[in-house]
Amino acid sequence: MTVTTVETREAPAGASRHPAAPSRRRFWSASRRDQLAGYLFITPQLIGVVLFVLVPVGLAVWYSLNDWNIFSGRLEVVGGDNYADLLTDPQLPSVLLATVVFSGGIVVLNIALGLGLAVMLNRRFRGVTFFRTLFFSPVVVSVVAWTLVWGFLLQDNGGINGALSVIGIDGPNWLQSGDTAMIAVIVSQVVRSVGINMVLFLSALQGVPSELHEAARIDGAGSAAIFFRITLPLISPTVLLTAIITIVGALQAFAQIAVLTGGGPGLSTTVLVYYVFQQAFEFNNIGYGSTLALMLLTFVMLLTLLQWQLRKKWVFYED
Amino acid sequence: MKTDLVSHRQRRAGHVLRRVILIVALSVLAIPFVVPTVWMIASSLKPLNEIFQSPPTIFTDSPTLAAYAEAFTFQPFARQYFNSVYIAVVVTLVTMLVASLAGYAFARIPFRGRNVLFFVVLIGLLVPSEVTIVPLFQMFTQAGLVNTHWPLILVTALAAPCVLATFVMRQFFIALPGELEEAARLDGLGRVGIWWRISMPLAKPALSAVAILTFLASWNLYLEPTVYLTSPELFTLPQALTRYADAYGGEMWNTQLAAATMTVVPMLIVFIIAQKQFVEGLAHSGLKG
């Protein structure tokens, strides 16, 4: 994803490296053999991508122009009907809203918390490794196990409300009302995955030359000014990339929703991926499900394009 | 002189105070990161009637392993555990091989159409698995591979997580100095020999990053097993964890938590032992800007 330049380091040098090859004039010259090795090396990966990514995307486009006929058990061409359904589906606006709230909430919270933790832990003190380990540890807990435990704690009579009642607060039934259920899925997901962003930010922060900080401090800049004027611009490529990775990841969050809320209550936490799954596998609407899946793909593609464009424009520094 | 000393002492006091505030803030922030795991382990040891006790207690006075026994009798849990482990191991090994070959070629071997083909492979990173799952399900149905582990192994080892691995390996090999390879080539080593004997031994940091990312990706799969697998003895762990429900559909919380504990604790132990590799692997995975 980060590859904007795919320049070859070897190609220009490669030609002059084998001066003997052309004079021999054998068909399997060294460079031809090398080319063949190159193709053979990438073959397994290329087959995988073609067979399990490109062909399925092509098929999804085909399915989106069809509908499953229950009586004949076959696909029937319906042209643009599924695309017209996108406009009339009464559930879709609420699904898209939930998707925006969920992905937006996750990206904002995840970047803010990840950056905050990285700044707090980017210094030497006793216990810093302990805290880093601690904040990273949920990353290795499987998504489903993590989500199950949160579901358990969020029950009406569960641990969170139990703890709240001790300090005299009567907690809500978290998973039974739309707003609190959305907050619950966002928070549980951010806590599980923020460790990854924290590590990426930490390694970016360690790349910021300390002389810059010292120079600014001697010039009388406060900590906040140093952070916003110097550190943040310098690590902006990482922040941007991390934000895009996080939002693309949030767009694909299926297990968290399926296990914690099942899309409910009502449609309040039915995000696009979950809706795709429901349409395709629960209601057997293969055609409409594929149309929705292509919409998801379009969103992901647009975000990736946006990242490439922004990278060119406002990112301050690139190595 | 004296004022200097005072201000120095004051600054030191301010320093200590700030440190204390920092540690208190970190400890408060740490609560949601730690409590769920602790609570999970503690609750899995409680008798059923204590699980939703109010006010809540973290540790029980009468710990029991009944829920752990039940986890194995209610479902073929040992078998499911084995499934998850062997699938993740196979996927990781295949990915390491496929990705290091492809990553090496894209970084090091000049061949015609390299940039175009690399771009084609990168598309594999962009397409969410939820987009391809419907057609893939149809393809695997046609091939008679539904309700087997083949879709989980093939797609994971050759598509999305593997493309990420190829990318990581390429970034690593591109940064590797070429002199060693030149020397080996002059000694008459072919491409395969150079790749295996010269470049791969140097690629250990990248390979361990790839291994960790791939293992976690396979270990966490939920959508795919839910779609492809219907027999409980073929289930993987994430899927199995959600099936602990009694005849009325009510959740068997303590059994579920015991099973979850058994899947989480080994991973946490491995993580704590190998955390340096985990964290550095991620940081060096080429995922940063």
TrEMBL record, chain B:
<feature type="transmembrane region" description="Helical">
    <location>
        <begin position="116"/>
        <end position="137"/>
    </location>
</feature>
<keyword id="KW-1133">Transmembrane helix</keyword>
<feature type="transmembrane region" description="Helical">
    <location>
        <begin position="20"/>
        <end position="42"/>
    </location>
</feature>
<keyword id="KW-0472">Membrane</keyword>
<comment type="similarity">
    <text>Belongs to the binding-protein-dependent transport system permease family.</text>
</comment>
<dbReference type="InterPro" id="IPR000515">
    <property type="entry name" value="MetI-like"/>
</dbReference>
<feature type="domain" description="ABC transmembrane type-1">
    <location>
        <begin position="81"/>
        <end position="274"/>
    </location>
</feature>
<feature type="transmembrane region" description="Helical">
    <location>
        <begin position="149"/>
        <end position="169"/>
    </location>
</feature>
<keyword id="KW-1003">Cell membrane</keyword>
<keyword id="KW-0813">Transport</keyword>
<feature type="transmembrane region" description="Helical">
    <location>
        <begin position="257"/>
        <end position="274"/>
    </location>
</feature>
<protein>
    <submittedName>
        <fullName>Carbohydrate ABC transporter permease</fullName>
    </submittedName>
</protein>
<dbReference type="GO" id="GO:0055085">
    <property type="term" value="P:transmembrane transport"/>
</dbReference>
<dbReference type="InterPro" id="IPR035906">
    <property type="entry name" value="MetI-like_sf"/>
</dbReference>
<feature type="transmembrane region" description="Helical">
    <location>
        <begin position="85"/>
        <end position="107"/>
    </location>
</feature>
<dbReference type="Pfam" id="PF00528">
    <property type="entry name" value="BPD_transp_1"/>
</dbReference>
<keyword id="KW-0812">Transmembrane</keyword>
<feature type="transmembrane region" description="Helical">
    <location>
        <begin position="206"/>
        <end position="223"/>
    </location>
</feature>
<dbReference type="GO" id="GO:0005886">
    <property type="term" value="C:plasma membrane"/>
</dbReference>
